[in-house]
């Protein structure tokens, strides 16, 4: 029998904090303040920051974007496209699923290690800032 234990990889606290700082810079470069959430591969919050000037709704949105991205290892903007499919549309009722651009899974050496979610700009700005932050810290998209 194979081992009943499966080891998982996760983003380190140091890497999550570095990613958070890069995401803050990427948002500022695009002219908006944001809430930024980084989860581990299981969707648990690893690092978080809410800018002083953003609405409180961005908190749950950013966390749920990161959770959604980590859940299946795909960007939240892809979920938005899937919601148009009748077989997938019922998932829109899941309380944490956030099918809005700005959430991207985090991969390292081909393994899912977490998710990043940004909320504060448009869905396109949020997505682009998350991509830039991941590139700057050398994590695969």
Q: How many H/I helices?
A: 4
Counting DSSP E segments of at least 2 residues, the number of strands comes to 4
The percent range for strand residues is 15-25%
Largest sheet: 4 strands, antiparallel
Distance between the termini: 35 Å
Q: Indicate the mean pLDDT.
A: 95
Global geometry: globular
Radius of gyration: 15 Å
Portion in helices: 25-40%
Given helix and strand content, the structural type is alpha+beta
With strands numbered from the N-terminus, the spatial order across the biggest sheet is 2-1-4-3
- Any low-confidence stretches, pLDDT <50, length ≥5? none
Order of helices and strands: HEEHHEEH
Write the topology of this structure.
Elements: H1 13-29, E1 35-40, E2 45-50, H2 57-72, H3 76-82, E3 103-108, E4 111-119, H4 123-137
Antiparallel strand pairs: 1-2, 1-4, 3-4
Describe this structure in words.
This protein is an alpha+beta fold and 141 residues long. The protein contains four helices and four strands. It has a four-stranded antiparallel beta sheet with strand order 2-1-4-3, sandwiched between helices. Strand 1 and strand 2 form a beta hairpin. The protein is globular, with a radius of gyration of 15 Å.
